[in-house]
Design brief:
By secondary structure, the protein is an alpha/beta fold. It folds into two domains: 87 residues, Chemotaxis Receptor Methyltransferase Cher, domain 1 (Orthogonal Bundle), CATH 1.10.155.10; 192 residues, Vaccinia Virus protein VP39 (Rossmann fold), CATH 3.40.50.150. 42% of the residues lie in helices and 18% in strands. The chain is built from twelve helices and ten strands. α1 runs antiparallel to α2 and α6 crosses α7.
């Protein structure tokens, strides 16, 4: 995907060009030049590509922040961001898409249950560490589904397994998504796609909500994390889920991220990506496809 975001000189011309407006919005409040500045920012900070057809989406996502800041124009608000790192982070978070649901792409969980889980359980029972990562966890549906499948239908056996050295990292760029995931509370109907036995074993009903139970909570660590920046950890993972995250990136960013994810897998470990995503570039030498959008790290155990 080609990034055609204009230079600062071009942006200055756009601000004075009456045709460079966003339909339906006063150019004194929000102009195409403002959107282009937003697009440059989110690409540089998060690797996300915003085309011009996303101009109104950016406006609707950021308008509440602009109002809260007291700025009368988007230009004023955007020019403050370099001097306010916290506000810049909130701005980037507001522009991310956090859409997911329980048991999304169920063939991934079926593969995990049948092909991956037995070996992880055996290792955990031998007191070996097991590490999983939901990279781009959004509001938590992915990681909680994964952990329920890992612990299984048998509550007693699952409780014993939960006391082993098993830790899942759940990370997302958006702090509000991480907080929602950590809360672990969802409308009961949101879990309809999760097998009844798993819901009964690992969730608790609270009026019209289902709440993730304490056994699962003890196993998951939540962190706000920008995937295109340096990662503040060094360990390797047995399983990484990074699904429907790269669809917002350009091709070079996708290839760099997949390579880094592959390098963080243990030999024989598994990477699950979204249905419209592919492994290309240098990572192709480290990963072999073992199922639809399922890849295994080559090496011992693969």
């Amino acid at each position: 995907m080609t990034n055609t975001i204009p230079t600062a000189m071009e942006e200055g011309r756009n601000r004075q060009n009456p045709t460079s407006v966003v339909p339906g919005v006063s150019p004194q409040l929000y102009s195409l030049a403002d959107f282009e500045q937003i697009a440059r920012l989110v690409h540089a900070e998060a690797g996300i590509v915003l085309t011009k057809r996303k101009a109104m989406l950016a406006y609707s996502r950021l308008a509440p922040l602009v109002r809260q800041s007291g700025a009368e124009r988007f230009e004023t608000f955007l020019n403050r961001l370099d001097d306010d790192p916290a506000l810049k982070t909130r701005t980037i978070s507001a522009l991310t898409t956090n859409h997911t649901y329980f048991n999304r792409e169920p063939h991934h969980y079926e593969h995990f249950q049948s092909e991956v889980r037995p070996a992880l359980v055996a290792r955990a029972e031998q007191r070996q560490a097991v590490r999983l990562w939901s990279a781009g966890c959004s509001s938590g549906e992915e990681v909680w589904t994964l952990m329920m499948v890992l612990l299984g239908n048998d509550r007693q056996a699952g409780e014993a397994l939960a006391r082993r050295d098993i830790v899942a990292l759940a990370s997302d760029l958006a702090d509000h998504a991480v907080k929602s995931a950590q809360e672990g509370r969802y409308p009961a109907e949101a879990l309809d796609s999760v097998p009844k036995e798993l819901r009964a074993a690992w969730c608790q009903r609270d009026e019209n909500s289902l709440v993730v139970g304490p056994s699962l909570r003890r196993m998951v660590r939540f962190r706000q994390l920008n995937l295109i920046r340096p990662w503040p950890f060094e360990g390797l993972f047995d399983v990484i889920f990074c699904r429907n995250v790269m669809i917002y990136f350009d091709d070079p960013t996708k290839e760099r991220l997949v390579l880094r994810l592959a390098q963080r897998l243990k030999p024989g470990g598994f990477l699950y990506i979204g249905h419209s995503e592919r492994v290309t570039g240098e990572a192709s030498a480290l990963l072999r496809c073992v199922g639809p959008t399922i890849y295994q790290r080559v090496g011992a155990g693969a």
